[in-house]
Prior knowledge:
The chain is mainly α. The chain has a domain at 11-40. It contains 3 helices and 2 strands. The protein has helices spanning 16-25, 30-39, 55-58; strands spanning 2-3, 6-7. The protein has a two-stranded antiparallel sheet with strand order 1-2. A hairpin with a 2-residue loop joins strand 1 (2-3) and strand 2. The protein is elongated, with a radius of gyration of 19 Å.
Amino acid sequence: MASGNTKTINSWEWDIRVRERNLRKGILDEKDVDKHIAQLVDVSDQADTVGAAQPALRGRED
């Protein structure tokens, strides 16, 4: 994954499950993660609330 001092990291490798595995294996380090997170754009003001039924949380409706 690393060539010289430059790491090329595919976008799918930032998935939390893959990222955690790569941290454990030493492929990524915390500095890589911190740098990636710092570069993310805050789009929270563009989010919409979506309501979805959660029958498992309310119990049975016979």
